[in-house]
Amino acid sequence: MSKTAQKFVEQETSQLVRKFGGTHRSPELNQLLEKDYQRIAKRLMKYKISSLITLYNESWGRYNEIREVSLRTNETKAQVDPELEIYAEFQTAIYKTVIEMKRVENRSQPKHPIANTLVDYGLFSASTPNKSSIQKDFGNTIVQQREGLNSTLYTYTNKHAVFLESFDAKVFIGLTKMWFDQGKNPKIKIESLGELINSYEGIISGGEIKTVRESLRNIQQTIIVMKECFDPSISEIIQVTDEYSPIERITWYLRNGEKEGEETAATIELSNTLHTSMLEGNYSFINMVLYNDLNTPTAKILYMTMIRSVQLNSTLFEVDSLINQLRINSKVRKDAVNNLLQAFEELKDNNIVDDFEPIHGKRNKIEYIKLKFSDWFQNQKHTETLKIG
Q1: Which of 124, 273, 289, 372 is the most exposed place for a label (fewest CB within 10 A)?
Q2: Which pTM was predicted?
Q3: Separation of CA 84 from chain center
Q4: Quick one: angle between helices 206-220 and 166-181, nearest 10?
């Protein structure tokens, strides 16, 4: 994707050079350039900030090299193509502008709703076994006993032998954003899968559309069998019997030029259980630009979990329970702990947490993690009404 962004910036930079390259610099010209930088930057907002920073550093390096050569040639009275320096300057300014805009957007008020139930019970996995391991352990259908928030029990079932991952979480968040924007109707109308991709701040491509379609299929084939739930009114775990899939039904519509099995328009109906829960306000808000900018699946799932934790004023986490809730797949505990610590480090790099401290127990084993949320993260409005479970 960074190559696509780079090519786009190169094209736009060339146009700016043709438009302003030979013009005398003035405050008025600088204002015009700034408007163009912002216009171009808006087209780049869906690319990862880490990729944009890499491109900026490369462009900044080339710009400095050209300037140094230009200074040396001035001393020797040699000629350097002035457009080369102008091109590097404009290109660097574009990358700088989009990085600044993304950093502002990453601190903006979150506006994408995500069902608390799916986060609390760890429906989405930070990492999963490979296909051969899944086939060996589960066969063609996954049936897995799980423990969610407050040690509540449920069964995860998937008829396609698939564990839902961070990409599926992104797709479902985009779906619930459309649910929210369409008046919280259980039946969500999608004119095209591109509309859904835009909803989760993704980049539309043929490959992305194909993956989204598969993701929706996997979500629909996932069944949650609830055995217990936490009742906040009495602060106790109660026995329940409930079985549902997040997506109750998908109805695809064949449009002109489309082949059967490749439809992109659909009506998606949420399960009654999930829809009713969300109507009661049982959802939180997440910043999808920030979610997409996080580099690792574990950091993405951890970010969702921390949104719930900051609401509940939870700052001390039992490591094994958190690994279990995030579904970090590893046969070696040390590897799972390192994965978790790296994810916390990424959240720290993105100012979601100010700091975190591993707390060791017997035999120098990390048993707890204590953290401090950043002020801006604590002050964000992540929910309309606080619900648990």
Answers
A1: 372
A2: 0.89
A3: 37
A4: 90
